[in-house]
Each structure stands twice: as structure tokens, then as C-alpha cells.
Amino acid sequence: MKLIIVGAPGAGKGTQAAILADTLKVPTISTGAVLRKEIADGTAFGKTADGYIKAGNLVPDEFMVELMKDRLSRDDCQNGFILDGFPRTVKQAEALDEMGVAIDKVLDIEVADEAIVERLSGRRECPSCRATYHTAYNPPKQADICDKCSAALTVREDDKPETIQNRLNVYHKSTEPLIDFYRKKGLLVVAQGQEEVTQTTKEVFRALGIE
Ligand code: AMP
What we know:
By secondary structure, this protein is of the alpha/beta class. Helices cover about 45% and strands about 15% of the residues. It is built from 9 helices and 7 strands, in the order βαβαααβαβαββααβα.
């Protein structure tokens, strides 16, 4: 399946993408994770992206489209993939069409704005293996330590309170129009994001018609 997941920052796209990737046996491509790795590796691309991400703004479309052209042409994507965080603008969605990528479904995970701020501020990430946690909803076994590789967990630079509101504004202005774009194409399915990860997964599987 070629699946796109959309939803506000903190809606649970990454968490559900990881679960779906396991079930559907396809890779997940998380553009946010790809960009954070470029930054950690100190690449030229990472240096360009860093300022945009720290401010909670979008990296310009032309960079993202080039990045995804390369990524989606690799062998592991030929039987399907899950896109978490791309496209994020109608321009990026149009570029995906122009690449000739035939998307099967677009999953929108809906969460009210009020819940988003609480969710983002509790989010923790492993800087080593990139596993994600939440202090309230998906805590590691030992506080602030990764279950998988025992590294000390960190707060994403753009999950700091001053950046969260801007990311929400950017989502409503630039990314939400994608929902109509894909509804008109007949590809959109909607799941309500719940407090519990497992409840959201049930909603997601129901929306996608997965047993
Ligand atoms: P995420 O982990 O998906 O929340 O992404 C973190 C940040 O990376 C976003 O706030 C953007 O600054 C940047 N980013 C990720 N994906 C895209 C994209 N498709 N277009 C533009 N910027 C992106």
C-alpha cells in the first residue's frame, strides 16, 4: 500500500506509521526524522533545514521535493510505503503527482488543537535509535531512558513551548488544505486521534479497512 498520513504535529502520525509499517511490511518515510538526521550528520542540506525547523516553519518545497524524489526511487519503496510528514503543502502533493506516484489512501488523524500542546510538550525522542515516547501516554519503562538502546531521551528542539503554537499555525495555513485536495480525489479516510495509542490504532485500522 502507498499511504500518506496527514494530521497536526503531535497527532500521532509517527507512532501510527511505525505500527502500520510493521503490519503492512512496508517502510515508513518520516521526512521530519530524515531532516533531523541530516542536521545531526552536519550535511549542507541539514544546515539549510535547521533554521526552518527550529523556528517551527516549513522547509521550502523545492528542497523537500528533491529529497523525496531521491528517497522514493529507491528499491525498498517499490512495493509500497508510508509517508509521515510528506506532502505538507498542496505544492508538494502536486509534485508527488508529477513524479507519477500513485497513492492508494490518505489517512487524516484528527486531534483538537487543545490536546496538541499537551501532547507535544510531553514528547520525548531517543537521539540514538530515534524511538519516540510520551511522558503520559507512552512512557519508557525507566523515566527519560530509551527502552530499546538505553540512551538518555531528549526533547525535540521544535517541541519547546515557544515553537509549538507556530507549528500549529503553519499546519492550519499550509497543510490542512491537503485534506480537501485528497478528499476531492476520493483518497481520504479519517481516524479520530485518541488519548491512548492503542485506541487510535483501532481507529486507524478501521479507517483503512485492515483486520
Ligand atoms: P515532523 O517530525 O514531521 O513534525 O517534522 C519536523 C519539522 O521538519 C517540521 O516542523 C518542518 O520544519 C520540517 N518538515 C518535515 N517534513 C516537511 C515537509 N514535507 N515540508 C516542509 N518541512 C518539513
